Amino acid sequence: MSLVVREIQAKSILSRSGIEGISYTVNPYTGCSHGCRYCYATFMKKYSGHTEPWGQFVDVKLNAPVLLGRQLPRAQNGTIILSSVTDPYQHLEGKYKLTRECLSVLSKYEFPVEVLTKSPLVTRDVDVIEKCKHIEVGLTITTDDDRVRRIFEPQAPSVEKRFAALRSLRDAGIRTYVFIGPVLPMRPEALAKQIRPHVDRVLIDAMNYSSKTLAIYRAHSLEDWLKPAYVHSVIERLRDSFNAVPTEIC
After folding, report:
1. What pTM was computed for the model?
2. How far is Cα 100 from Cα 65, in angstroms, rounded to an integer?
3. How many domains are there within the chain?
4. How many CA atoms lie within 13 A of 40 on its CB side?
5. Are strands 57-61 and 29-30 parallel, antiparallel or unpaired?
6. What digits encode the pLDDT tens for the residues 138-162?
7. Which CATH number is 141's domain given?
8. Which element (helix H / strand E) includes 102?
9. Could you tell me the pLDDT band of residue 18, with boundaries at 50, 70 and 90?
10. Is the per-residue pLDDT at 210 higher than 90?
11. Which residues of 205-225 are buried (b: 16+ CB within 10 A; e: fewer)?
12. Residue range(s) defining the domain that contains residue 188
């Protein structure tokens, strides 16, 4: 699969958020090379001018750190998330380091920061993360089965690499959480066992856009995972398996 990469100059980088508990979002990229089949952010394509399928284009906002440095002094204090409609550590971040530079800017301020990614590349930036005064880092881990990951998240890092990144962040003393969303076919107790020792909290969310993946579930004989009652039972098993770890169902 070829990836169309376009370097652009953004007009703004600190955007108001509609996510509960989050005041602002920072998205250093438009588009995401992970190509997750269920991704809700595909609506961003209509604003990008791209004709390529979602997952096959990324716009790189070269001036994101500079813009952030200009906008933060004028912003009211509130929680900032990197990112809401892209993965801030998709593989292009290895080259461009925009997320790293944005975190460096944020480290000079008192804004609470959340990072959410599927990528172990986040561990590269432990030195910068440690300089941020109020920060937590989340890994999205939707299944314990990498065969399932390859079906639904074909270009994303493996499940095991995400587990390893979580452990590494925790060992570095960084506050961590896991977002299990959407809940994909899994062994809930096995997934919780891998995550539980390494997180401060857990968020769980069901598949909210099943129409995008209906054919995939059927092609792989996973129709049970489309039944709300079945998924609810799995979520309950997950919650029970996290014991004392604070767990929120979205």
Report:
1. 0.93
2. 9
3. 1
4. 10
5. antiparallel
6. 999 999 999 999 999 999 999 999 9
7. 3.80.30.30
8. helix 98-106
9. confident
10. no
11. ebbeebebbeeebeeeebeeb
12. 4-249
